[in-house]
Structure formats: structure tokens, C-alpha cells
Amino acid sequence: MKLSLTKCIENFQKIIEFKKEHKDNVILLIGNHDFHYIHSIGLSSRYDYLNRNMLIEIFTRNLDLFQLAYYHDFNGKKIIFSHAGITKPWLKHVGYDSNKIELSNLATYLNDLLKSSDKRLIKSLGMVSKYTYEKNLEIGVAMVGGAIVVSLI
């Protein structure tokens, strides 16, 4: 069953309300297709030109609820979650020293960058996909549904 765009937006708004009601138990990760509405740059696949103003307004009004990366320590196993993956070349491009990866600091850095006016994140679009599957990483990458989970090896 295919959902209408209106129904998708209604579902998205319900997810945001659910997050507001359960702030400490729900993590909303920004995906690569969401990012275009946050920085109003358009021109991407799956970009909804018809509803763009409404989506830009929804993301802008609720940006504090979203994260680019989420860090959690599971009994000593340090893990970072992101939608599109994290690679050394991409980290270098967004100004993070990939030779000294500390996952909790990395998540904070990326989340601050998302909410800043710094243009490095915008300029790096497309780089994550390009480098996600290269084997030049010293961090482990595993696909889980649509998200990518990264942990130190």
C-alpha cells in the first residue's frame, strides 16, 4: 500500500509529537534526504518540491529534536549511530581530526555542526555514500535497517 504525501507528513508530525512526549527515550536521526530541508538546498532525489515549505518549517521548528549522530555506551561497548555512515575522509572534509576518533566527542561535534551555519556539512553531501564502503576505516560499520551503526574495533 502506497501512502500519500499528505499521510507521510501527518505520520512525520506524529513521530515528532511522540518524541516530544518521550524525549529521553526516542532518538530522531537526520537522514541524507532530510538534510536538504534543514538547510533549504533542494535538488536531491526524493525532494518534495510540492510540500517543501511545510517540511522546511517542520524541520526548522523542531531541529532541536534531531541529531546527526547518537552515541551510547552499552556496557563498555562504545557505539555511534547515524543514518548515512561516518568515514575518515568525510570526517576530514567536515573538519574533524579522524586520527583521534572519540565517539562521544564525535557525536557532539556532528550534532553541533548540524545546527550551525557552518557550510562544511552542506559541502560534504554525497561524500558519505562515496566512502561508506571503503576499507580505509579504523572503525567498524554495520548496516541495521536504514541506519548505520559504527563502533570502535
Description:
The chain is an alpha+beta fold and 153 residues long. It is 39% helix and 18% strand. It contains seven helices and six strands, in the order H-E-H-H-E-E-E-H-H-H-H-E-E. The protein has helices spanning 5-21, 35-38, 52-62, 88-93, 103-114, 120-123, 127-131; strands spanning 28-29, 66-67, 69-74, 77-82, 139-144, 147-152. It has a four-stranded antiparallel sheet with strand order 3-4-6-5, with helices on one face. A two-stranded parallel ribbon has the order 1-2. Strand 3 (69-74) and strand 4 form a beta hairpin. The termini are far apart. The model is unreliable at 129-153 (pLDDT under 50).
Question: Helix count, per DSSP?
Answer: 7
The helix-strand sequence is HEHHEEEHHHHEE
Radius of gyration: 16 Å
| Number of β-strand runs | 6
Strand order of the largest sheet: 3-4-6-5
Strand content of the residues, in percent? 15-25%
The largest β sheet comes out as: 4 strands, antiparallel
C-alpha termini separation: 41 Å
Shape: globular
Main structural class: alpha+beta
The pLDDT mean sits at 76
The percent of residues in helical segments reads 25-40%
- Unreliable stretches (pLDDT < 50, length at least 5) are 129-153
Provide the fold topology.
Layout: H1 5-21, E1 28-29, H2 35-38, H3 52-62, E2 66-67, E3 69-74, E4 77-82, H4 88-93, H5 103-114, H6 120-123, H7 127-131, E5 139-144, E6 147-152
Parallel strand pairs: 1-2
Antiparallel strand pairs: 3-4, 4-6, 5-6
